[in-house]
Design goal:
Blueprint lengths: L4 E9 L8 E9 L3 E5 L6 H8 L7 E6 L2 E2 L5 H11 E4 L11 H5 L3 H4 L3 H14 L15 H13 L5 E5 L7 H16 L3 E5 L3 H5 L3 E4 L1
Parallel strand pairs: 3-8, 3-9, 6-7, 7-8
Antiparallel strand pairs: 1-2, 1-4, 4-5
Helix pairs in contact: 6-7
Length: about 210
């Protein structure tokens, strides 16, 4: 992962023509660093993560990965790039209540055209490492908030992503689960990943290498 860089260049985005969340926003995130995004509610932390994660396209400017404009790619190309490089941890875990935990973790295989059988052993190992392997064949309705958060992290880490984006990952977690998730982020950054976390959690902010205020 060494040398990877995630950047915004003169980024512009607004949900309507009357207001703009970002107007010429430029920032960079380097391999091996864990960065906290903070700011008041409504300032655009979650939106920036979605733009960085190629889930939305900017109105102008670019999201650049390793020197190439990734945000200008078509939908299919962005989806493939996202599946190959990016792990996303959503604020509310976003687990499918109709599917088992192991199926939720393996969901990203669909977007990488990776056989589920090849990824199953890694998925089970991740669940075990975060202490939730006993729930592999259960459904999310039986989980606590802390367990759901750890499972969402397993899903994000399944393909060993070079970029990890997390939206308030500790906001709904108990202290023990928050510590587990935070340590996982620190470990991924130490291994060379880019980790960008939108958060109001002062403890998490203090453990980041850098703090960006929106």
């Amino acid at each position: 992962m060494t040398g990877r860089m995630l950047e915004t260049r003169e980024l512009g985005f607004g949900y309507d023509q009357r207001s703009s969340l970002f107007d010429g926003y430029t920032e960079s995130f380097a391999a091996g660093e864990m960065v906290a995004l903070t700011g008041c509610s409504g300032r655009g932390k979650s939106t920036l993560l979605y733009l960085l994660g190629l889930m939305m396209k900017p109105d102008r400017g670019a999201v650049v990965i390793n020197g190439a404009d990734a945000s200008s790619l078509g939908d299919a190309a962005r989806a493939h790039l996202r599946a190959d490089l990016i792990g996303f941890v959503f604020q509310d875990a976003c687990l499918d209540s109709t599917r088992t935990i192991i199926d939720n973790v393996l969901e990203t295989c669909l977007y990488r055209s990776q056989p589920r059988s090849a990824a199953r052993s890694r998925a089970l190992a991740l669940l075990e490492s975060f202490g939730v392997e006993s729930h592999a064949e259960s459904r999310p309705a039986r989980l606590s908030g802390g367990q759901a958060g750890r499972i969402a992290l397993c899903r994000a880490l399944l393909n060993d992503p070079a970029i990890i984006l997390a939206d308030e990952p500790t906001g709904n977690l108990d202290d023990a689960s928050a510590a587990i998730v935070t340590e996982a982020f620190r470990a991924r950054a130490a291994a060379g990943a880019i980790v960008v976390v939108a958060t109001h959690d002062s403890t998490l902010v203090a453990l980041c290498d850098r703090h960006v205020v929106l």
